[in-house]
């Protein structure tokens, strides 16, 4: 990886894996003197097709506000607040995580950080891997942060942040 990284872009969804990726992204931004962009991608409930069929000007701002709240909570959970030595920008992007992240990381001087996640094989076939898609489509280096072995040892899954009440250190 090149040391002239200007932006470190991290995909965040609130899962334990994304919180780990956010902490790694912070370390990379600090090491390189870069700006850290924490990005949460969202789609309307039911997907874009359902939203086009039945658009709701009232619900869209609520969904976007909910995404901002989830992103702020995830940053608080992962970082315990915003460190004074690294410039952090929060960004909410409408779209699927893999496409939004690959589109945002559009400069060779970016570094995209994503969690590898643990997904069951059926979900991987239908939804695909965000990390794999980003590695194939982003025009910058992609750092894939492996999942922590701790949840596996404890017999828990990291896929569903609602089921996991713990945050790894």
Note down, in words, how this protein is organized.
By secondary structure, the protein is an alpha/beta fold. Mean pLDDT is 83; it is low at 163-169. It has a 5-stranded parallel sheet with strand order 3-2-1-4-5, with helices on both faces. It starts with 6 loop residues before the first strand and ends in a 15-residue tail after the last helix. The protein has 7 helices and 5 strands, in the order E-H-E-H-H-E-H-E-H-H-E-H.
The low-pLDDT segments are 163-169
Shape: globular
Question: Taking strands numbered 1, 2, ... along the chain, how are they ordered across the largest sheet?
Answer: 3-2-1-4-5
Q: How does the major sheet shape up?
A: 5 strands, parallel
Count the E strands: 5
Order of helices and strands: EHEHHEHEHHEH
Percent of sequence in beta strands: 15-25%
**Integer average pLDDT:** 83
Approximate helicity band: 40-55%
Termini gap:
26 Å
Rg from alpha-carbon coordinates = 16 Å
């Amino acid at each position: 990886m090149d040391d002239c990284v200007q932006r470190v872009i991290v995909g965040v969804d609130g899962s334990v894996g994304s919180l780990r990726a956010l902490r790694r992204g912070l370390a990379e931004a600090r090491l390189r003197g870069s700006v850290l962009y924490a990005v949460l991608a969202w789609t309307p409930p039911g997907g874009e097709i359902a939203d086009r069929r039945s658009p709701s000007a009232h619900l869209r701002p609520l969904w976007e506000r909910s995404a901002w709240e989830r992103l702020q909570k995830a940053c608080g959970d992962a970082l315990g607040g915003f460190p004074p030595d690294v410039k952090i920008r929060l960004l909410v992007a409408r779209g699927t995580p893999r496409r939004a992240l690959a589109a945002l990381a559009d400069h060779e001087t970016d570094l995209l950080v994503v969690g590898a996640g643990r997904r069951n094989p059926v979900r991987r076939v239908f939804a695909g891997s965000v990390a794999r898609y980003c590695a194939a489509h982003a025009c910058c280096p992609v750092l894939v942060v492996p999942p922590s072995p701790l949840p596996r040892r404890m017999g828990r899954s990291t896929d569903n942040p609602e089921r996991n009440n713990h945050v790894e250190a």
